[in-house]
Amino acid sequence: MDYQNRAGSKFGGGGVASTSATNADRRERLRKLALETIDLDKDPYFFKNHVGSFECRLCLTVHQNDGSYLAHTQGRKHQTNLARRAAKEQREGKKDEGAQTGLLAGVQVKKNLIRIGRPGYRITKVRDPISRQNGLLFQFQFPDIIPKTEPRVRFMSAYEQRIEEPDPNYQYFVVAGDPYETVAVKLQAREVDRREGKFWTWFDEDSKEFWAQVLFKTERDERFSAVPGLAPGRK
User: Fold this and answer.
1) Which of 36, 66, 75, 129 is 20 to 30 Å apart from 224, CA to CA?
2) 3-class SS at 198?
3) Residue spans of the chain under pLDDT 70
4) Which residues form a coiled coil (predicted)?
């Protein structure tokens, strides 16, 4: 850092750096150090989003460039979270099992796991012939899914995702099956009927096809969801 020509300093003697200048120099030194020791392609917590920013999935932070992300990885917050994650995995015995490091239920990343693309899918509109409930039938193809595993599903609110601006009028139906990329279907933020036979999932081991049916509550059910005998409320 150049300390010369600063206010209040003698010629050639340097001067006291400002706080912002000191922080900028520190970040630059950390970035250069990280570039020599870290390969971003092998970092399981490194993620580049659709707007070109970089995210740390461990600390849930967003960075405008790779230098900022690399400086973050050398900081106290990231190192502390790494130590906590390592201690948690050791307690749960995940290192011996080679298990994954989880992010969200149904949205998980495994170390050294190569993603092979998105699964094939088909979505069909359905209606219950008795209750007249509207819904959707999902069909996903996972021909190369990891043996002895089944796809996982969950419903995600608009405020849990970081891809779009949160809109309370929508929710997301998330499906994950390693080594495929996790996919999400954008749905109306209507309450899902979770009674037996209304919401169900099924995985065909032979054809490697995953099926899921989602039926939405009727307006009457939503209005009187607390009344005994009607569809249960959202959990």
Assistant:
1) 129
2) coil
3) 1-17, 30-31, 33-38, 93-112, 224-235
4) none
3 state DSSP class of 173: strand
C-alpha–C-alpha distance, residues 141 and 211, integer Å: 9
For residues 175 and 138, the answer to whether their CB atoms sit within 8 Å is yes
Domain C-terminal end among 75, 92, 109: 92
Distance of alpha carbon 79 from alpha carbon 128, whole angstroms: 52
Bond before 179 cis per omega within 30 degrees:
yes
Q: Using alpha carbons only, how large is the chain's radius of gyration in Å?
A: 25
Q: Tell me the HSE value of 83 on the side-chain side, using a 13 A CA sphere.
A: 7
235 assigned to some structural domain: no
Give domain status of residue 6, yes or no: no
In this structure, are 202 and 140 located in the same domain? yes
Tell me the residue type at 213: Q
Domain limits for position 82: 19-92
Paired strand residues for 137: 124, 213
pTM over 0.85: no
